[in-house]
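Figure 6 in text form: structure in, sequence out.
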């Protein structure tokens, strides 16, 4: 039931958890960062609209609190939980709007559980959407004709007050990535394009949000996708004397000017998708550029030379991977002194070339793994080529356990970048200890809340 326009309009924004077991006392600590997307949406809501925000990872949702409209950001991992939450509001006659990656890549599915779906980025359509709901004339789909310029994007962090997040200062500069990796939902969502916020706006935002001793995290999908623009940002960051980290592609490791600027601008490290040491595997995932100019080993040597830490991510499960792949990768990660490492199996996300290929080959164990009652977070949702799904799952756990063992942590501490000063060494030990505790902490976590037994209600 859609309410007619009235003087006071109330919106409830909710950031969903991935899942929760019946026995879970606290949510996974490493997943408790500020949801910057919520702050961005909040900044677009007209001043005369009342707003409330609940973070499902940290607090109970007050379903009976009066509201006129609910906003949910839905990703593939959180889809089931979003549908549970939406069903609670649907029982109460409150309309729900969903946006985010999954809403764009699986629009037909999400439309079953939401009165409206935002396809693509929200900036160009959100105010029209709110106005439509205030006047009782909502549309089913809201989709911008083109990508937003991001000139007006300025997150409203007031939504985060009183919530206990990890003490990172999150900020966005670049949105999207020019590379088209086979497994990546980002390239499907943004279609291989990149937008940037104005550099001066980013600088002003940092000045307002920074706290003494805080590490700034640029949440960009690939901060160096356009290396020339990234260099302009780094020049502007130098006077701020901040410490920051981000995510970037391996190409930046072969640009000496960029490496110098990274260090001078306060960069302490980057997450780099190394993915595989197998050239054939890299080409299959459309990531052959990782082999440029000497490949990962040369790139990591260049990062170390400039005292830049690396969070290296690897994925297992491509057809070239064998039992020996794990030992070789683990030895490489230790030898090259990775600050931390992601050692995980492939997850075929809907809307990606990987998902379509595996589905066409009839290798999916769960066609919609994100909705299946039997699926758990660390389960492999498809049949790998050279081992069973259960074996691949266990070998990933074993690799993480070995990498985050104390002998491995102490061995990697010898890398000069990981202990370049007391601040970095303290963070190295703390972050590795956190990952050590999480090695198996997510393994049997369901998608959706086990304690939430509500029947999923679809839009009639």
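Output sequence:
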């Amino acid at each position: 039931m859609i309410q007619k326009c009235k003087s006071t309009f109330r919106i409830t924004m909710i950031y969903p958890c991935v899942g929760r077991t019946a026995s879970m006392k606290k949510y996974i600590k490493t997943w408790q960062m500020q949801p910057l997307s919520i702050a961005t949406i909040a900044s677009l809501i007209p001043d005369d609209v009342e707003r409330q925000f609940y973070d499902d990872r940290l607090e109970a949702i007050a379903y009976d609190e009066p509201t006129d409209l609910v906003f949910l950001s839905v990703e593939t991992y959180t889809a089931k939980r979003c549908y549970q939450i939406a069903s609670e509001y649907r029982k109460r006659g409150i309309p729900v709007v969903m946006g985010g990656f999954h809403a764009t890549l699986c629009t037909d599915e999400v439309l079953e559980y939401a009165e409206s779906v935002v396809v693509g980025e929200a900036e160009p359509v959100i105010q029209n959407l709110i106005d439509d709901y205030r006047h009782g004339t909502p549309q089913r789909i809201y989709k911008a004709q083109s990508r937003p310029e991001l000139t007006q994007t300025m997150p409203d962090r007031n939504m985060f007050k009183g919530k206990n997040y990890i003490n990172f200062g999150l900020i966005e500069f670049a949105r999207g990535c020019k590379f088209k990796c086979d497994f990546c939902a980002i390239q499907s969502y943004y279609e291989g394009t990149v937008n940037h916020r104005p550099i001066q706006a980013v600088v002003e935002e940092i000045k307002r949000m920074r706290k003494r001793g805080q590490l700034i995290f640029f949440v960009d999908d690939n901060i160096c996708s356009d290396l020339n623009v990234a260099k302009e940002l780094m020049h502007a960051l130098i006077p701020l004397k901040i410490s920051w980290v981000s995510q970037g592609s391996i190409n930046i490791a072969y640009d000496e000017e960029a490496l110098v600027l990274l260090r001078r601008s306060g960069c302490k490290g980057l997450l780099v998708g190394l993915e595989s040491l197998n050239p054939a595997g890299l080409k299959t995932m459309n990531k052959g550029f990782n082999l440029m100019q000497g490949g990962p080993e040369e790139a990591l040597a260049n990062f170390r030379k400039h005292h830049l830490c690396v969070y290296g991510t690897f994925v297992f499960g491509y057809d070239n991977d064998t039992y020996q792949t794990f030992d070789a990768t683990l030895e490489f990660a230790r030898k090259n002194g990775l600050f931390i490492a992601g050692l995980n199996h492939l997850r075929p996300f809907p809307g990606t070339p990987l998902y379509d290929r595996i589905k066409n080959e009839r290798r999916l164990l769960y066609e919609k793994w994100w909705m299946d009652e039997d699926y758990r977070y660390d389960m492999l949702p498809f049949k790998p080529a050279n081992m069973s799904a259960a074996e691949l799952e266990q070998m990933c756990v074993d690799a993480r356990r070995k990498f985050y063992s104390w002998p491995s942590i102490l061995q990697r501490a010898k890398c000069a970048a990981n202990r370049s000063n007391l601040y970095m060494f303290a963070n190295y030990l703390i972050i590795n200890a956190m990952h050590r505790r999480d090695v198996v902490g997510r393994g049997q976590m369901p998608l959706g809340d086990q304690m939430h037994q509500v029947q999923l209600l679809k839009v009639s």
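Caption detail: The two ends are 11 Å apart (CA to CA).
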